[in-house]
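note to self: the first set is below, dont mix up w the second
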Amino acid sequence: MFDSYTVTALSTYIRELFEVDFRLQDVWVEGEISNLRQAPSGHWYFTLKDSQAQLKCVMWRSSAEQQTVVPRDGDAVLAHGRVSVYEAQGAYQLYADQIRPVGAGNLYQQFEQLKAKLLAEGLFDEERKRPIPTFPRRIGVVTSAGAAAFQDIQNVLRRRFPLAEVILSPTLVQGADAPPQIVAAIERLNQYTDVDVILVCRGGGSIEDLWAFNDEGVARAVAASKIPTISGVGHEIDFTIVDFVADLRAPTPSAAAELATPNLDDLRLGVRDLESYLVSVVNDSLASLGSDLTTCQRELAHISPANTIRRQRQRIDDWQIRLGNQQKALVTLWQERLASRTAALHAASPQSILSRGYAIVYRSEDNTRISAAKGVKPGVGITIQFHDDELKARVEDKDSHERYKRTLF
């Protein structure tokens, strides 16, 4: 009986043989890129080939995002990684973590050295990054005046936020003369203090095309800018030193314009939503306040002085009525008393007495009232006052009167 393997077991055994060979775990492979595709997951799948053989390769998204340039089919490259077996297909492949164009190794080395230097100085630190203004009034653009990137930026700004003024600080963006011009363009905008944000942009290209943005002087000018900066150099997976020192990195020039501005349509919608929200809040507040006011009015009605005043007014009315009645009764009483006393006085008046048949006698000479007969001598003139008139008389002694012993003529 002979030993046998399952397909899975054999594939696993072969993978383990690859993985224990240290030379296959840290290897550089030179070849031509073909069949490059990027999966929705962000992983790259491609083939390296030469005139006689080909090798399947994969680069995970975490490594692909660190690439400064995107390789294209037909590019001659150096790929670094480890060789292992993909057991599901029983195929060996290179798990790449770096890709460099053949002949560009010196540029990559310079790139990594400058990147490490500036990183150590803290120019990449997030703490020094400044926020981008939400509503920029003036946007400075550092790029070539005739570049398609500038046209793309203008198109995006006209569509998204036409309120912003675009100020171009023109410069070369490629070649040996580009770095000092880029530095000068950034400094010009910093002298123009009304600029709110600076876009440092260039379209895509090879590492050599983008090398001006890996210049140390350009990187330091971006880092020293008093105005917040957004880098938009190359395509989405192209990285330059400027991307690391800028306050914000955009994958493309158009994306830089989008990151620098709000969308006017979104603002309009936001304003409408805010208006509806504020109207709702105000209406709810008014309804709540109205309810509170009604409650307060009811509560105040119980303790309001107006109720007490109304009750006191009613009491005053009652007291006025009672006082009026009492006054009337008192007046009636005094009127009755007055009438009674008036009648008594009238009955006791001399005129009333006289009207009942009495008379008053006066001495005529001095008008002295005579109250007793003995006080009148004969011959004295007297006046007899009746109730309606008076008579004159004289006292004589000729005849004797029974009562007064006098004779009256």
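second set (the one i keep forgetting abt)
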Amino acid sequence: MITLLDLAYLAALAGTSPWLAYQALRKGKYREGWLAKCFGHVPRRSSKAPCLWFHAVSVGEVNLLGTLIDQLARRRPEWQCVVSTTTMTGMGLARKKFPQLATFYCPLDFSWAVRRAFRRVCPAALVLVELELWPNLVRIARQAGVAVAVVNGRLSDRSFRGYRRIRPLVARLLGELDVIAVQNQTYAERFLQLGARPETVRVTGNMKFDGAQTDRANPATERLRRLAGLRPDDIVFLAGSTQEPEEAMALATYRQLAGGWPALRLILVPRHPDRFPTVARMLDQSGLAWQRRSRLEKDGPNPAARVLLVDAVGELAAWWGTAQIAFVGGSLGNRGGQNMIEPAAYGAAVSFGPNTSNFRDVVALLLESQAAVVVHEAHEMTGFVRRCLAVPGFAQTLGQRARQLVRSQLGATRRTVELLLPLVATPSRSPVPPPHFAPGSPRHRTAETDRQGAA
């Protein structure tokens, strides 16, 4: 049955279809997963084992799931997990990170698509990472007797203001949730003000701290270090998760300082793949010798190239382990910043811009501990890197404080697992341990390749 909400979604989809077509043709976005998104054609699960359906919007949320799924597998090896995502980059990483699990595009919030997805997956619990509330998704989950949880929940100032304008709708959705595990007390109070039931809201901490690697000698980082030909005496300045004009600023910093510090190397990791060609053209025009990460396996490292463009998705966490000096991007524009926990965990000297609303609590902790530096413009970035090079003790102290802070924040994943376990154990939930899919359907098959009959 088509509802008024479905009609509203259809109108919105029709209105944005020219833009979606443009993005698909020019940038390669939104080309996959339409059977799953519009019709709920996700992998069919045949096992009767309890199943947790994790929904992670994109790359950051998918990365977050690694430690959570690992801990659940150790505690309940007989359970099954499946992972959905929304973006192509998120799906690419999910397939790579969880090859043993079923991964698929989450259906859009059309009632028919959501119902079919639930019939095919038969989960005992739906676990939404950070916050991804859709009316039909939550409502149909509850109608099916499926528990619904939010983990690593957060509500930025901007989101909170927006949700307050539609508080009656949001309160109804939040009231349907069984668990709302949030990162800090501020977020807990915001959820409560929006209508969440007090008994469902728990402060568990930020799971991103648990997922951060602290050992620079980990296998993934060591492999990349060898692949790029990094020497022990190299000093790596890495600008990661960058957007325009942050790559140009980092390149200008490198050009100003490389003459005085020949050991300096620059690694650029743009946030979005569609920026790879733009940054490559900028590097071509710079006149500097540089390499693409995508060519390293074939060509090998070029000793003359002191600049590397990482044109790959899902590797940034390991690349941070090669850096002594870090700039975390998305923080000099309007994106609200990116994850600065990863370079901090490695003990890098961390910097970022002033626009970090997405990580406000993490930034507050870092600045309180004098474990990071805010740079407001290009000359401040250059000044920060220059100081790290000229005064090694400054960079080392900054990195030691950052690593110590990360270690002090560990444990959020364990606390989250303790909240999720009872959801499946509750007898009133529809039963829905590891994976068995329908004959001929690989465990990691995506909805795009699953073209069997409807549920």
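remember for set 2: Residues 247 and 279 are 7 Å apart (CA to CA).
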